[in-house]
């Protein structure tokens, strides 16, 4: 564990891997040192933002005394995410992984995923799984618009775009689950520690007169159905 | 309830408060007033609660009309202020009668003005804050001409000073204190010396997310990619081409480029007043 300083605004704790990040975040969330305003877990680090009037020296010292809690995040909950595996990059992902498209889908639905951290946009969770065959690079060039609900892969992560935004991840499919909703408390379904299982949904029937896609399971409405 | 009607907004006017805390783990940034010191002064002048929402005005140009009697204060960038066409002083308590027009001209120095009203701007909070996060698209939409903003109930405390002198903004070069790290070891040995010895200039590609700087590039030791990590305001993040970006209030929660040094918290507020073309020097 390496403790790095961000002037008087933050203390950045670097650990060996994502497992240690999750263990450290669990310990910090349970017992946050005095003077910490916000905790930002990431891929190899946990940032402690200093609250106004907080003492960064005291925070750094408190971090040194912490005992990370391996597996301490099991209580964050479980989520099933129904996905239509019709993403524009599915064929490319199959090529990159050496799997067939069906094998990619089976690997994605078969793996155990957990939210390691959030970032990029409110409610965008970085999910880590236990199947290394699904590690693929980001696209060479980012798309200017990825639709809300897009399910994607990049590096060791899988993610779900909470709203339409630019994005460079490889698109596997889409879900109608609304992962970010300000009228919900908390607004994010994907919070650090939440365990996720993806399930395959049959392709949606084409919208006909009076038809439309069926409502998703959370009871809200999909705000952006672009594809 | 008294209110203010926005007649003109200038380049960008947003509602801001002390920012959003406690939601970073969901990917929600701090946002809040870019120049926290000027924002705090505006509220202090009016004896407001310290987290009361105010208007942040970029490069002047705001015109407000009072609906009912409104007590206001203007702080931050040095700009001409008028009430119904008559000159009014910044950093003072201003009494606006019903129908009075408060107008901010173009600043002669600095970039961001704060217009506070006694009782605070009463818009619905989003995740415990009334700040607009321009990167995440959270918080109240930026006011437009015709927007009517309700003024909250006045606090019990009364203003105790008519005028609070503030430190004048530097008209020329801006000097900011930095602490090296957290990723100074990702850069060549001479990079920190270059950063400390050179004048950088704030470019016009600057906003509430960050001040993008031009000047000598800062060379990295080698390639490789930094896994994304949490960022603080004041971070000098260096993309591969080498010109640093100074992160301000709406910076991303996490970033993937290394941070060579961080501007101290007090100086981030002054950095937020640097308009495009301002020369910036860093010192330890």
Automatic annotation (TrEMBL), chain A:
Coiled coil, from the record: none
Keyword check for ATP-binding: yes
Pfam families tied to this protein: CT_C_D (PF02682)
Protein keywords: ATP-binding, Hydrolase, Nucleotide-binding
Keyword ATP-binding among UniProt keywords: yes
Entry's Gene Ontology molecular function annotations: ATP binding; hydrolase activity
Positions of the Carboxyltransferase domain: 1-190
InterPro entries per UniProt: CT_C_D, Cyclophilin-like_dom_sf, PxpB
Ranges where the record places region Disordered: 198-227
PANTHER family with a match to the protein in the record: 5-OXOPROLINASE SUBUNIT B (PTHR34698:SF2)
Protein name according to UniProt: Allophanate hydrolase subunit 1
Organism: Streptomonospora salina
Upper lineage: Bacteria, Bacillati, Actinomycetota, Actinomycetes, Streptosporangiales
Automatic annotation (TrEMBL), chain B:
Highest taxon, organism lineage: Bacteria
Carboxyltransferase domain: residues covered: 25-284
MF terms in GO: ATP binding; hydrolase activity
Alphabetical list of SMART domains matching this protein: AHS2 (SM00797)
Keywords: ATP-binding, Hydrolase, Nucleotide-binding
Keyword Isomerase appears in the UniProt entry: no
Annotated protein name in UniProt: Biotin-dependent carboxylase-like uncharacterized protein
Organism: Streptomonospora salina
Lineage summary: Bacteria, Bacillati, Actinomycetota, Actinomycetes, Streptosporangiales
């Amino acid at each position: 564990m390496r403790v790095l300083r961000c002037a008087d605004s933050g203390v950045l704790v670097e650990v060996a891997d994502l497992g240690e990040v999750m263990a450290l975040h669990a310990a910090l969330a349970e017992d946050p040192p005095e003077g910490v305003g916000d905790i930002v877990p990431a891929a190899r680090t946990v940032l402690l933002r200093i609250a106004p009037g907080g003492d960064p020296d005291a925070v750094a010292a408190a971090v040194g005394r912490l005992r990370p809690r391996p597996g301490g995040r099991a209580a964050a909950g479980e989520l099933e995410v129904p996905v239509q595996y019709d993403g524009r990059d599915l064929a490319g992902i199959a090529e990159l992984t050496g799997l067939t498209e069906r094998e990619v889908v089976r690997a994605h639905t078969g793996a155990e995923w957990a939210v390691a951290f959030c970032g990029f946009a409110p409610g965008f969770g970085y999910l880590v799984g236990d199947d290394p065959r699904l590690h693929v690079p980001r696209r060479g060039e980012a798309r200017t618009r990825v639709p809300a609900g897009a399910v994607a892969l990049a590096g060791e992560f899988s993610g779900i775009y909470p709203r339409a935004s630019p994005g460079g991840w490889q698109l596997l499919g889409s879900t109608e689950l609304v992962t970010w909703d300000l009228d919900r408390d908390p607004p994010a379904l994907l919070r650090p520690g939440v365990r996720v299982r993806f399930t395959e949904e049959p392709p949606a029937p084409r919208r006909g007169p009076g038809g439309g896609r069926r409502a998703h399971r959370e009871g809200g409405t999909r705000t952006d159905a672009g594809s | 309830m008294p209110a203010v009607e926005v007649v003109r907004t200038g380049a960008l006017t947003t509602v801001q408060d002390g920012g959003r805390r406690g939601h970073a783990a969901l990917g929600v940034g701090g946002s809040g007033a870019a120049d926290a010191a000027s924002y705090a002064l505006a509220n202090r002048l009016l004896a407001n609660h310290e987290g009361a929402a105010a208007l942040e005005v970029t490069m002047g140009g705001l015109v407000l009309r009072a609906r009912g009697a409104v007590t206001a204060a203007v702080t931050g960038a040095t700009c001409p202020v008028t009430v119904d066409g008559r000159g009014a002083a910044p950093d003072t308590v201003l009494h606006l009668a019903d129908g009075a027009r408060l107008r901010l001209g173009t600043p002669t120095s600095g970039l961001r003005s704060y217009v506070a009203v006694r009782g605070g701007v009463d818009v619905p909070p989003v995740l415990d804050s009334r700040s607009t996060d321009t990167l995440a698209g959270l918080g109240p939409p930026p006011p437009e001409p015709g927007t009517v903003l309700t003024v909250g109930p006045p606090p019990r405390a009364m203003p105790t000073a008519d005028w609070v002198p503030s430190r004048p903004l530097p008209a020329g070069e801006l000097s900011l204190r930095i602490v090296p790290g957290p990723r100074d070891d990702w850069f060549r040995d001479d990079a920190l010396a270059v950063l400390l010895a050179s004048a950088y200039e704030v470019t016009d590609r600057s906003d509430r997310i960050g001040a993008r700087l031009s000047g000598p590039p800062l060379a990295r030791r080698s390639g490789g990619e930094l896994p994304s990590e949490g960022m603080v305001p004041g971070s000098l993040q260096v993309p591969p081409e080498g010109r640093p970006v100074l992160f301000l209030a709406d910076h991303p929660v996490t970033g993937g480029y290394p941070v060579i040094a961080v501007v101290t918290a007090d100086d981030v507020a002054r950095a937020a007043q640097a308009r495009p073309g301002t020369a910036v020097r860093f010192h330890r």
